[in-house]
Amino acid sequence: MLSRLTRSRTLAVCAAPVVALLAVAAFAPLPFSVAQPGTTVDVLGKDKGAQVITISGAPVRRTEGQLRMTTIVATSPDTRVDLPDVIDGWFRTDRAVMPRDSVYPSGDSVREIQQHNREQMKQSQDEATRAALTYLNREDEDIEIALKLADVGGPSAGLLFSLGIVDKLDGDGDGGDLTGGRVVAGTGTIEADGTVGPVGGVPLKTQAAGRDGATVFLVPEAECAEAQAERPEGLRLIPVTTLKGAVDALVALEKGTGKVPSC
């Protein structure tokens, strides 16, 4: 006949597998990436010595202020992330633990991922150019636009590219700058029809923007709550859904007329 286990022994027996699992988890690589605020780049200026936006075939305005696209930096797909890394990132406001598949396409090599990001960036640049020229009703003109960013991939600079093109060609439409002389930062994908889409890592991007002097941050409307989570003091959040909405909000902010949307 089997003897009954005492309560303490039962707990000990049940706890043993849990302890073993925790021990394994502590030393086993986990399917996460750890991200932090990355660089920001003024699309109206230069990046590593090269002009970000180059326009030919049309007069280009001399702009004031800045339009800064924002990035995050994540551990590479082949970097080992262990339980202590996850725990550390979980409790820090300047770090974010993200499923690796949400940062990098699952199953791809580092080289394939880099190529994928370059292709996304090229597509984003093409869409940004079309969106800006369509917004300005100048899509049929012979205007050549080249966009260049060093060491940045993905589609999340699309909105800022479009705004930079609009500012260089037309400003606020009345002789002024879209920025009003401010440091404006933001993020968001862009479609050729001007639709702004959500991106990842918004709380980290607001921190990067605040660190680099921005006082205004343009955020895809669907990500307002995320942007509020770690918003630096003094950084004004403006939700946007379209390129036109973003331009209208910046013009209203610059001229002090009309309602400026807020998260």
UniProtKB/TrEMBL annotation:
The keyword Hydrolase does not apply. Keywords: Signal. It comes from the Bacteria. Residues 1-28 form the signal peptide. It comes from Streptomyces virens. This is Lon proteolytic domain-containing protein. InterPro entries: Ribosomal_Su5_D2-typ_SF (IPR020568), Ribsml_uS5_D2-typ_fold_subgr (IPR014721). Transmembrane segments: none annotated.
